[in-house]
């Protein structure tokens, strides 16, 4: 047994395969944050006055706030004046078509397995590719536009669809919501905007791929999805970053609005650079994701596979305002080496007959700490609200930690709230059984992990599921005890 | 096929196997019997390569290879199969998926292409009949919520799918009712060929009524103290293990 542990622990040091840097000339802001920088970003993007005012308001509010400390994570304080808030790959001019994308950038995305070439893409996924601060290209725009679906970068949306942005930006996550959402509101550089008109079911998956490339740069993207009455969309988000010794900050805000009878499914495979085996470097992933089921019978479903980042602080939530609306949260969070994750969800039941389901699978290995933090809130008018939460933790080795912090606040006596939690370890018995059938230990661990996470993996769209399964295996290679 | 010479093994500081000698040829069925604590399951575990046990002496040669030098997965890939006394559960992994992974790992080791879905299904259907196992069981998570009989049947089903050269059945009869015992035993009998060998480890003679051994060995206090034909099993059943103790000149408790 002890012998087994050491060999297993040795092989635990899996390599991050997206750790390379692309050599592209960038147009950057100097490090530091001030009103001038906010103005600089806004001017770079040629934004209208109202957008600048919105940003400045957020910035001024942020100055009065302090960084939250309640999460179960420890990290050196971020020096907000050492970060560059804007970095854009230099492109010669505005692009008329995808063919004009810088070959160097195109190669970057090819290397990540994201083809910007529409012919080569899987025909049912449209991609918005974001590098550092700006969106590079959005595929399948024309086909989507024929259905009235708007899928473009946030910068473009501010120019082209100001009425929609003014109406919905900050409507789910107000700029004053928290420290990181205020910061994001002030300096966000790009992201995706997606609008599904009334009665339209998007025929393809919409996807944004985020890549941090530049050094000492923060990435602050902003995503907004609005699903009008009776519409449906499935949205995918993927992300990677180069290996750097410095910690980099990623503070995104994602907002989702689902109106009457609308459904939005949002899936994330988060694979930011997690830092090296000693915990050096890696991304600070401080993200605010929230959706509102504003209309009756609406549904928002979050699915996340979190394997990257040095520190994660993230709670994709649903406000269940419309009667009979449904919220779902499916999560697999893997931490290895010195990674720390404090992640979970908030389900806020406001409307009648609202339902929510939480399935969280935490897998901890190495010296990592993995916390589930979830809030289920039932308001006084939420008659017959139902929640089911299940939080399972799997430990690999004896130097890591798994924690569960469920919060339940119920103000209506007709509510039914259920919470189940389990903690288990991958046993040497399981490994030996697999070995005896011809599986080596790595294959065995991958199999056991994927079995553990199956309920969540099943929620992912096909295109993502295979990739995510491999990712789980890679993140944990052999780290068993 | 298998040649065990003076095999000694211990767990922590406790000596369990104190010099086992055993020759098994292709086409043979051997049975190892013995009272509780005699080292039967330890022998099975050591042959399969469980790391809890430390081999302190002796050699095991399997088809010309030093078995003890091989990692447990390589032993399996070489054709050693252990039907576990207590099969473990793997939640979320379907039995079919598990077996498919195992079959293809073994094929990979032999330099063969992975089996395609159609061929795999065909083979599965064929072997399912052999051990009278139901499709619905194979769609469920591996051994999770299986009854004792279902678990054992699943072990024999895996054996049928993997077609090992040398199979060890570790107390496969324990916890089985008579019908399940018959099905499991018949499965094993159908898998028997002139090219493979089986080692049946059991406490009771009952299983050997169905799986008729060519040789029976009595394991006692870490040593094989008596070997014989299938009639030895009957003798043990009749006289109990005390007669072995008497033969060895030990005192028998009243």
TrEMBL record, chain A:
Q: Taking every annotated instance into account, which residue ranges of this chain make up the domain SUF system FeS cluster assembly SufBD N-terminal?
A: 129-201
**Where does the SUF system FeS cluster assembly SufBD core domain lie?**
210-452
GO terms of biological process kind: iron-sulfur cluster assembly
So where does this one cross the membrane?
none
Family indicated by similarity: Belongs to the iron-sulfur cluster assembly SufBD family.
NCBIfam families the record matches: PRK11814.1, sufB
| Protein name (record) | Fe-S cluster assembly protein SufB
This protein's species is Lacibacter luteus
Automatic annotation (TrEMBL), chain B:
Provide the organism lineage as a comma list: Bacteria, Pseudomonadati, Bacteroidota, Chitinophagia, Chitinophagales
Q: Where are the transmembrane segments?
A: none
**Family designation:** Belongs to the ABC transporter superfamily. Ycf16 family.
Q: Which Pfam families match?
A: ABC_tran (PF00005)
Gene this chain is encoded by: sufC
What is the official name of this protein in its record? Fe-S cluster assembly ATPase SufC
Q: Which keywords annotate this record?
A: ATP-binding, Nucleotide-binding
Q: Coiled-coil region(s) at which residues?
A: none
A single GO cellular-component term on record = cytoplasm
